[in-house]
Amino acid sequence: LIYDVAIIGGGVAGLSALMYAGRLELHSVLIAKEMGGTLTLTRDIENYPGFKHIIAKDLTKKLLEHARDYNVEIRQDTVLKIEPNRDMFYIETKKDMIRARAVILATGTERRKLKVPGSSTFENRGIHYCALCDGPLYKGKKVGVIGGSDSAVSEALLLAQYAEKVYIIYRGEMLRPEPINAKRLKQFENIEVILNTNVIEVIGGKRLKKVILDREHNGSSELELDALFVAIGGYPLSELGRHLGVELNEKGEIIIDRDGKTSIRGVFAAGDVVDSSFKQAITAAAEGVRAAYSAYEYITRERVFTCDDPQYLKPIEISAQEVMNKIKSRYKTLVLDVREKEEWIKERIPGSIHIPITELKNNRELLDDAEEIIVYSKDINCPASTIAAKKLIEMGYCNIYDYKGSFADWKSSSFQTEQTEMRDTG
Ligand SMILES: Cc1cc2nc3c(=O)[nH]c(=O)nc-3n(C[C@H](O)[C@H](O)[C@H](O)COP(=O)(O)OP(=O)(O)OC[C@H]3O[C@@H](n4cnc5c(N)ncnc54)[C@H](O)[C@@H]3O)c2cc1C
Fold it and tell me: Is any ligand 1 atom within 6 A of the Cβ of residue 241?
């Protein structure tokens, strides 16, 4: 089974790409460790056009529902490696090996960890990375948020609904919330902003008790806290792309062009993992859709066939000249002599092999490796190739060509010349 497109990532970018790929009738699969991605870390979305307010997990649900409206496949799995092989990508996951003609990388980001003495000791015992997930544990307590972005401010606004006191600790001179969040910040009396300050150590017993600041605050460099939420951004999960050889920028983000294409043919990318400066749910969605459309153009313009295409549900008759053109093309074409007795085909057609019909099932590995399969019969009256072709289609293969040959075809003058050339070059 070969997919047209494999989408890696189940965040906004991946799900939007899947919806669009499905809509374009690409044979599509989405593989993700966790559905929803970064949206699972937040609650309220107020800047996704068309929704004045939507709960983040409801947005994920809607994106999933929309994608599932089409004939697409979703797998919960982790992609370990992607290897290109001619025009195909072999996607190794924890559970499986998946093949696709195009790949969309929508792997997003990983939260940046706080790296100061004590921070790893108190992870999940006071050090947290998601206010939505862990904030409710600190009802009536004192908590801190590290970071100065709009996301950090959003985290503080969420925490202020539970905690008695919230400190935003930021190393810069000014927070950078969106204006609407800046106004909200002023309405919460229990939020205090500490600027130009770094947390340099985390101290506690069984749980976090206080943090040490590199500047005094209210006459002390110690700040008592029950929890510290880290919101200092993320780094791109671009390792799969790096391994494939796609071009990355100095931050490790995947460089894409306006069509979502990476530097490698057949590999597209979208969302937080790419080199766009503005990263939001709506931009991830738009990039996902654009990547899907580019993958569609790539597949339809350059590959012309898909497994679901009804014309490939029956073998296609092919002439001797077409056989030769296919062998010379860049696709992995396998020519099979399926008659019980092997005759002259093997030595005349480079790369061709003999597998009798009864043995097809025992040669899956070889068949899986081919992008197109040509089955050969001796002449128009010989049914072997058609029987074999139908069997191959039943076995789940597509792009099966039925060549009913004869010696006369192969002896035609132009064809003979090409044949000789091919043999000469090995
Ligand atoms: C606290 C916070 C608040 C935010 N608030 C807003 C907001 O109000 N409005 C807004 O528009 N944006 C907001 N954002 C930003 C927004 O959430 C992101 O821009 C968007 O969700 C990114 O989507 P994505 O699909 O690119 O990546 P992600 O959502 O990160 O998805 C990545 C996906 O890839 C999967 N993955 C990664 N590696 C692998 C692998 N090897 N194998 C299989 N799967 C893999 C992950 O499991 C996940 O499914 C916020 C972000 C944060 C952190």
Answer: no
**What is the predicted pLDDT for the residue at 304?**
43
CB of 421 sitting under 6 A from ligand 1: no
Q: How many other C-beta atoms are found inside a 10 Å radius of the C-beta of residue 250?
A: 6
Ligand 1 geometric centre to CA of 231 (Å) = 14
Q: Could you tell me if the CB of 16 is within 6 A of ligand 1?
A: no
Amino acid at 37: G
Per residue in 196-234, is it b (16+ CB within 10 Å) or e — as a string? ebebeebbbeeebebbbbeeeeeeeeebebbbbbbbbeb
DSSP code, position 289: H
Angle between helix axes 150-159 and 179-187 (nearest 10 degrees) is 30
Predicted local confidence at residue 368, as pLDDT: 83
Residues 6+ apart with CB under 8 A from 111: 41, 129, 130, 230, 233, 234
368's CB contacts (< 8 A; 6+ apart) are 99
Residues of the chain with pLDDT under 70: 86-87, 302-315, 329-331, 342-348, 350, 379, 405-426
pLDDT at res. 413: 37
* Nearest-angstrom CA–CA distance, 278 and 17: 19
Ligand 1 contact via 106 beta carbon (within 6 Å): yes
Per the listing, tokens 């997003």 go with: 108
- Closest C-alpha to ligand 1, atom 33: 9
Mutate to test the pocket of ligand 1, among 15, 42, 181 (most ligand atoms within 8 A of CB): 42
Residue identified by tokens 């190739």 is 385
Which ligand 1 atom is at minimum distance from the Cα of 32? 44
Residue 342 confidence (pLDDT): 64
Q: What is the CA radius of gyration of the chain?
A: 29
